[in-house]
Amino acid sequence: DGSCMLSSGDTTVVCAVYGPGEVKPSKELIHKACVDVVYRSRVGNAGIEDRKQEIFIEKSCSSAILSVLHPRTAVTVNIQEMHNGGGLVAACVNATCLALLDAGVPMRFLIACIHCVVLADGTVTLDPSLKQQAKARQQNGSATLLFTFESRTRAVISSHTEGKVTQVKLQEAVTMAQSAADKVFSFYRLVIARKFSKEL
Amino acid sequence: LIHFYKRKMSLEFRSLQPDQYLRKHIEAGVRPDGRSLNERRPLTLSSANISTADGSAVVKQGNTTVVCGIKLELAKPAAENPDQGFVVPNVSLPPMCSPNFKPGPPSVQAQALSTFIRDCLDASQCLDLGSLCPVPHKYAWVLYIDLMCLDHDGNLRDALIAALMTALRSLKLPKVLYDEEMDTVQVVEEWSKLDVKRIVLSNTLAVYSLGGTANLVVDPTAEEEDRADSLLTFVTTEKEEVCLSQETGSSCLSEETIQSAISLSTKQAKQILTAVLKAQS
User: Fold this and answer.
1) Which residues pair with A36 in a beta bridge?
2) What's CA A158's distance to the chain center, in Å?
3) Do A59 and B112 touch (CB under 8 A)?
4) Number of CB atoms found within 10 A of residue B180's CB
5) B30 DSSP β-pair partners
6) Is the pLDDT of residue B128 over 90?
7) Do residues A70 and A30 lie in contact, with contact meaning Cβ atoms separated by under 8 Å?
8) Residue B242 belongs to what H/E stretch?
9) How confident is the model at residue B280 (pLDDT cuts 50, 70, 90)?
10) Which partner for A103 in A17, A87, B82, B127 could form a disulfide, CB atoms 3.0-4.6 Å apart?
11) pTM of the shown model
């Protein structure tokens, strides 16, 4: 029903959205639509790492989608990783938002996900490359942070941080990521405007 | 007699309007089971219960029951880290723990919890993997950590991490003798404790947005978890540093809420820490 291919630097993901549509009776929710995310990485069979990404993407989207409008249905999101150049999960969430817009699924707000890395020396880097991500994982005292913002008030809907980070640095990272989220939201406007101007 | 009717009506209210029932309680600063918003359920930890496992623990947090068993095995270390042992955590949520789970391959929640456990161990640097490799390039210790939930009454993360830490602290490693000429190993029954560098503590809070203010509820039961606007988990070490945090859900949290959540978690973590330290004396 809606699809999107998003490239953020080298990182490319393809997202397809179906729904609201039929749902398996085991997953059916009586008061709202269920959001089903299937994520596949480029190589290898489906592993448990993928489940973690699926849950994060699902949690970010469920808050955005007006699921109470369509009870007993499912909104299925399929994401395929084409290339990982860093900031993969963030690209997935952003691609999902655009695909949901394309499919016309009713949403409360738009979502933008920003990936950032805080190194041991205190530098905060947004949208890190693969090398910077790996450095953050290995280095002692550095952290990887993922934030999902919503478009109305730029509040944080979901976040995932791994590694030790002080409160002060966390605040700094959130503020920096918020201004980056603004750019993502204006990018969405640009894409949708372009799409509709072509159709005319 | 009036008391009997009051109770009957409250049960009807609970099943017909579960959201309202819960929210009215939280507005009044109390929960359906009588706890205040900052009160944890009683936590019972016992270690070294399973004689066939090298390390084990059973944790009961209210009704939530989790068993952890650790088995050791010698294996060839990974090519990327030839001088390190490795850890294989596995969380299983069998159908007996909750009607939400059916028999079959691990559910998405179980797999997500397995990655959560692994991420906590990595982020906290709780284990020195270099000390788990008696013969680099040839033999390394593998820790197969199996966590099984026997009863799911909410807040699995805290219980799983508490069980994991108690089991790790009860783990004893045998001595390994390596014969270089013959390229064989011999495992001798001389036990030494595993060096646990950090004690990892998890604290989960449920957030309810009532009338614009966010109410933080500590240690939610399954009923409270299902109806929460969002769930916050903070994983800290005994040195009060936050090493992992996860926030999922639909409510938008302000900075002040997050700050108060972090300080609340740190306070709660101390209670869990005393319980973990007492279990293994």
Assistant:
1) A76
2) 10
3) no
4) 8
5) B36
6) no
7) no
8) strand B242-249
9) low
10) A17
11) 0.88
**Residue in B214, B133, B200 with CA at minimum distance from that of residue B163:** B200
Q: What residue of B is the nearest CA neighbor of A159? A: B247
For the CA atoms of B8, B9, B12, B13, the dihedral, rounded to the nearest 10 degrees, stands at -140
Cis peptide before B99 (omega within 30 of 0): no
Q: Can you read off the two tokens belonging to residue B41?
A: 């359920």
- Let me know how long chain B is: 281
Q: Which two tokens stand for residue B176?
A: 């390994």
Tokens of B170: 């009860």
Residue contact A171–B255, C-beta within 8 A: yes
- Strands A34-40 and A74-83, by their bridges, are parallel
- The residues, ordered by sequence, that sit 6+ positions from B76 with a Cβ below 8 Å of its Cβ are B138, B139, B140
All residues of chain B having their beta carbon less than 8 Å from the beta carbon of residue A153 are 252
Residue B2 pLDDT exceeds 80: no
SS3 state of residue B16: helix
Amino acid at B206: A
Q: Which residues of A touch B122 (CB under 8 A)?
A: 137, 162
B261 contacts B56 by C-beta, under 8 angstroms: no
Q: Which two tokens stand for residue A195?
A: 């799409």
Query: The tokens of B163 are what?
Result: 């069980």
What the block records as the tokens of B147 is 């966590």
Measured in whole angstroms, the distance separating CA A78 from the mean position of its chain's CA atoms is 13
Q: How far apart are the CA of B255 and the nearest CA of chain A, in angstroms?
A: 8
Interhelix angle B108-124/B156-170, nearest 10 degrees: 50
Name which residue leads in pLDDT, A36 or A171: A36
Q: In terms of C-beta density within 10 A (0-12 exposed, 13-18 middle, 19 or more buried), how is residue B177 classed?
A: exposed
Q: Work out the average pLDDT over B24-49.
A: 88
Which DSSP helix (H) or strand (E) runs through A22? none
What does the block give as tokens for B273?
């820490």
Residue A148, CB-side half-sphere exposure with 13 Å CA sphere = 32
Distance, CA of B49 to CA of A22 (rounded, Å): 47
Q: Could B243 and A162 be called an inter-chain contact, meaning their C-beta atoms sit closer than 8 Å?
A: yes
> What gap in Å lies between CA A130 and CA B95, rounded to an integer?
39
